[in-house]
Structures are given as C-alpha cells and as structure tokens.
Amino acid sequence: MKSGVVLMTDQPNEDFLHRLADLADAATLPRFRCTLHVSSKEKPGWRFDPVTDADRAAEKALRKALATAFPDHAILGEEFGSEGSGRFRWVLDPVDGTRPFLCGLPLWATLIGFEVDGRAVMGMMSQPFTGERFWAGPDGAWTARAGRRERLRTRDVGDLSQAVLHTTSPEGYGPLSEKLKRLMAKVRMTRFGGEAYATAMLASGYIDLCLEPALQPYDIVALIPIIEAAGGLVTRLDGERAERGGPVLAAATANLHEQAMAVLCRE
To answer: Which parts pass through the membrane (predicted)?
Structure first.
C-alpha cells in the first residue's frame, strides 16, 4: 500500500471514486474563500481563464493516487495534460468552475471521469463545501449528503415551453449566440453560470436542459455517466457522443433533447 491507496489491477469501483474525491477535497476545500495565487491561461473567446493553487494541488493528488492504483491507465487532466495510452483513461478537472471558486460561490466541483475504449462509464462530481457528491457507475446514478444516499432521476416536463435551460456565461458563445437566443425564446426560463453544478441539478430533476458552447473532454466526461444513468441524454450538437467535448447539449429526456436540437440545429 502506498499513499493510502491500494494497488489495483482491474477497473475501479465506487469506493475508489470516493477515495479519489476525498483526496481532491483535501486539496480544494482549505483553499476555498482564501487568498490564492491566480494566473490566466489562453482560451479562445475568453479574456480571462483563471487557474489557481487549488486546481494544481488537486490534480497532482489525483494523479499520484492513480499512478499508484492503476499505473497502466492513461490520464487526461486540465492542468497537466495527457499521459499514457490504452483502453482505460481517467479524465480530470480538479476545479470545474474556477471563476465561481474565485468569487466564493459554491458552484465549483471536482470532476473525475473514467473511460473504457473512449466511452465514459463512471463519473464523480464532488462539491466539498456543500458536502455533496454526485456519481454514477454500473449500479446507476447517486447523490449523497450528510450520510444520506439517494438515487438520481431526471424529470420529464414534456414540452420545451415548460423547460428550465441552464448555460454558462454568454461570453463564450461567439458564433453560436444566435442558436442560444433561439432556444431561450422557446423555454420557460434560462439561468446562467452554474458550471458542473447545474448539470448535477439536471440529473437531480431540477433543471431540464444544459447547453454549453465549447467544452473540453475534462469538462464533460465525468458528467456523461451521471446524466445517462439518471435518465437523461447528452450529445454534441452534431448528434455525436460528447466525450470529446465541443458544443454540448444535455437534456432530462430524449424527447426534450430532440425538441431542443430541432431549435438549435435549424439553419
């Protein structure tokens, strides 16, 4: 045993996802609402794309644990890039929502995804300030807080006119702005800026659509199994699976996804 993580030769289980989340929480939570060293990365469409000590420390902790437990698995992380190859890959976003993190808003989360042959099969989202976790694996999608575990289920509002839409800041939409405006005109209500937390609320049955204009794999891989196991559907706007990122739409039901795609993709 090394660093509290047992060496494994098979695929991960739910307990291992929670152990990884514990490591990330220990790196992020003490730094939340504290003075941080902040720098900015290059990101098309954005003037400021922040990265902090919390992002780097959490990803380092996760990579160290994975190298011990699954040394043959590949890793893709937002802060330190890609390493390794093969059928099994971990996809990490140590702090998804660095902007709300900097603003003291508990809408950020650590995302830990696991792919087999390019398909997301397990995912964990941890928000340690609120004490919530959302995850999915072979036995479905779940959430837990204060020791209480519940199964996640999306809701079915039936028609687009009754749907709640969530998206990121309009700042990142660029040429997709007109598509967003068309969809906003069709739904009941639109809210902005909830990051991965909004997707968790879709899986929990409080939001019906999440539209994102330009995701990276580390933004979405962990969330795909959670959405799907809760009853939702998530794809790119070209209809392909969402593991490689890009413009992505998540919907609470296949019917609502079809309705939204008809609005978004018409010429």
So the answer is: none
Q: Do 136 and 23 share a domain, yes or no?
A: yes
| pLDDT tens per residue across span 170-214 | 777 888 899 999 999 999 999 998 889 999 999 999 999 999 999
User: Which of 108, 126, 151 is the C-terminal boundary of a domain?
Assistant: 151
* pTM of structure: 0.91
Q: Which domain holds residue 82?
A: 14-151
**Which burial class, exposed, middle or buried, applies to 205 when counting CB atoms under 10 A from its CB (0-12, 13-18, 19+)?**
middle
Length of the chain: 267
Residues 6+ apart with CB under 8 A from 65: 3, 5, 19, 20, 23
The two structure tokens encoding residue 154: 């999306």
Q: Assign residue 31 the CATH number of its domain.
A: 3.30.540.10
Q: Which amino acid type is present at position 147?
A: G
Two structure tokens written together for 5: 């993580």
Residue 222 located in a structural domain: yes
